[in-house]
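User: I've been trying to design a sequence by hand for this structure and keep getting stuck. Would you show me what you'd pick, starting by listing the structure so we're on the same page?

Assistant: Good idea, let's start from the same input. This is the structure you sent:
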């Protein structure tokens, strides 16, 4: 095979990738899609099962109304057209964890079609089309043990069998692994805002399959695609796509042909491996599910669902920039989750300066969270605490140095800012002019060289004096007073 560095050059100049993603999202219903069994994660194996999800003869499915509403809400958030009538179909295939021998899904008449998500990559905006959003049930789970020591056993847990899913199928509009990563990030963000899923990848609530092919740059026809199945993180999806692009280019450059197949990604080795030949739609022998009537989501029901649609992330960012005078970067961080955005807006409306609240989140909060390996939802300092600290700085009650020290204490003790401020005796920066003048006089006397430089025209030296005064006052001097007194005495 051609060396990786050579392939990277070839992949970039001679070939272009074509990527489509299929994302399965578990809906946050209390019960399964066609029966009343619990969807709770982590219960003992095979404890949440009944004749319907076990596929026993004579058991009939009954559609979960909440699953339909969640699926429709998600499709609306993804700018899809909702089809008033959609049809459930049987997708026939054999897996040990698929008791019926078929999966109830939707095929040629899905719930929703023709949506789109806008992504930003490299400073430009691009629209990624969404082919369809359809409802289906999940299969069970096979648990493999003992393969390393040849005492191989496979156990089946059917708790997931019948859990409601939506499958979100993108158009093949994605042109790089970075675009795929950004698309998935935006998609997850939108789904979380709607509240229809927790998108917990560790628990299997969000899973992604990547379809990837390469073709000579400028060619209209697609190359032969492979599918990388069930990758459980966005980072691994990007890595798998990068590897698969290089692999396919290498095969073509060496005179071989790409085989249409399903592949698995080994994240430890950073490689994909062939799993099975890729099925075509006709291999599944789709036909309409005879035990379920057509699903009708009429105009009245659609309106009821649309009325529950929250303000979505991109629209909220634009409004927050306009309402609070914050930057786009501030808005990006503050809308990472709906809960965080809600907290910020509540704090911003009560604070003297929403801009300072946003600045403190970026400059003081995020760095400490990153250093501790915490998500913003795990911060000991709440958004209300950030707002309280912003007001104290804005009023001149505390200095920036004092704020940093109080934030450090909050993270050390795992307490909110307001609690730490009270514990430390509500410290305030000094406004005692005579005490400040004494400190400044001593520092000027001790640094004649810097005084001479300042008076010779090097005005930036004032920063040295400010630093010395703040250090001597243990950060409690009022910076504005320090600057005013220094200008007077040095001048």
């Amino acid at each position: 095979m051609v060396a990786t560095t050579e392939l990277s050059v070839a992949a970039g100049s001679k070939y272009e990738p074509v990527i489509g993603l299929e994302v399965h999202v578990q809906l946050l219903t209390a019960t399964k899609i066609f029966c009343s069994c619990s969807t709770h994660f982590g219960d003992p194996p095979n404890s949440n099962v009944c004749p319907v999800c076990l596929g026993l003869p004579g058991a009939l499915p009954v559609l979960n109304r909440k699953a339909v509403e969640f699926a429709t809400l998600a499709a609306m958030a993804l700018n899809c057209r909702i089809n008033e009538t959609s049809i459930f179909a049987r997708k026939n295939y054999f897996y040990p964890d698929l008791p019926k021998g078929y999966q109830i899904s939707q095929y040629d008449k899905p719930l929703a079609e023709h949506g789109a998500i806008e992504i930003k990559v490299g400073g430009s905006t691009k629209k990624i089309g969404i082919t369809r959003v359809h409802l289906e049930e999940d299969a069970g789970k096979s648990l493999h043990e003992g393969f390393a020591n040849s005492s191989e056993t496979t156990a089946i847990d059917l708790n997931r069998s019948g859990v409601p899913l939506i499958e979100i199928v993108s158009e093949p509009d994605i042109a790089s692994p970075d675009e795929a990563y950004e698309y998935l990030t935006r998609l997850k963000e939108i789904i979380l805002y709607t509240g229809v899923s927790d998108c917990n990848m560790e628990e299997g609530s969000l899973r992604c399959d990547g379809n990837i092919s390469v073709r000579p740059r400028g060619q209209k026809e697609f190359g032969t695609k492979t599918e990388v199945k069930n990758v459980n993180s966005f980072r691994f999806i990007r890595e798998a796509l990068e590897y698969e692009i290089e692999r396919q280019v290498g095969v073509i450059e060496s005179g071989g042909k790409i085989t249409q197949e399903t592949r698995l990604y080994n994240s430890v080795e950073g490689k994909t491996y062939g799993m099975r030949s890729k099925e075509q739609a006709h291999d599944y022998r789709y036909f309409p599910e005879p035990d379920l009537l057509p699903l009708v989501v009429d105009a009245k029901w659609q309106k009821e669902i649309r009325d529950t649609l929250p303000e979505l992330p991109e629209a909220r960012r634009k409004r927050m920039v306009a309402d609070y005078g914050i930057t786009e970067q501030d808005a990006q961080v503050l809308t990472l989750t709906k809960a965080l955005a809600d907290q910020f807006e509540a704090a911003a409306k009560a604070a003297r300066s929403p801009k300072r609240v946003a600045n403190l989140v970026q400059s003081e909060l995020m760095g400490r969270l990153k250093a501790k390996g915490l998500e913003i939802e795990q911060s000991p300092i709440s958004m209300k605490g950030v707002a309280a600290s912003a007001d104290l700085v804005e009023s001149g009650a505390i200095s920036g140095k004092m704020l940093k020290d109080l934030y450090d204490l909050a993270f050390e003790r795992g307490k909110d800012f307001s609690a730490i401020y009270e514990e430390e005796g509500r410290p305030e920066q000094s406004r005692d002019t005579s005490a400040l003048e004494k400190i400044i006089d001593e520092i000027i006397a001790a640094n004649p060289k810097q005084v001479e430089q300042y008076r010779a025209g090097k005005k930036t030296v004032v920063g040295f004096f400010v630093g010395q005064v703040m250090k001597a006052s243990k950060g409690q001097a009022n910076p504005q007073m320090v600057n005013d007194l220094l200008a007077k005495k040095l001048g």
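That's my pick for every position. To get oriented when you compare it with your attempt: The mean pLDDT is 89. The first strand starts at residue 15 and ends at 26.
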